């Protein structure tokens, strides 16, 4: 998923922008298996933390198959507001969003509950 926020702002300011794709995000081919093994060994986690909208989009079909979604014992956490929106778009509630998209703020969010 590519966001057009920065190019739109720059164009509105009269700055010509040429966009190039320099990388593509792809899913881990073993994600389903890793999730299955995790559940088998440890059960459902208390939290699922998402770090990007693409992570939400890649993970949610697998999470749906394994019963993570709609399971209100599993809390969904987002690193920032764009990732929060991706979770909400998938129809899930968001337990919390880090105040800033940093590891420190994520840890603070998780330890303050």
In short:
With 113 residues, this protein is mainly α.
Low-confidence stretches: none
Class by helix and strand content?
Answer: mainly alpha
Number of strands: 3
Radius of gyration, in Å, reads: 17 Å
Give the distance, in angstroms, between the N- and C-terminal Cα atoms: 31 Å
* Major β-sheet strand ordering: 1-2-3
- Shape verdict: globular
Give a structural overview:
- This protein has 113 residues and is mainly alpha-helical.
- 45% of the residues lie in helices and 9% in strands.
- The chain is built from 5 helices and 3 strands; from the N terminus they run ααβαβαβα.
- A 3-stranded parallel beta sheet has the order 1-2-3.
- Helix 3 links the parallel strand 1 and strand 2.
- The longest helix is centred in the middle third of the chain and has 13 residues.
- The radius of gyration is 17 Å and the shape is globular.
- The mean pLDDT is 88.
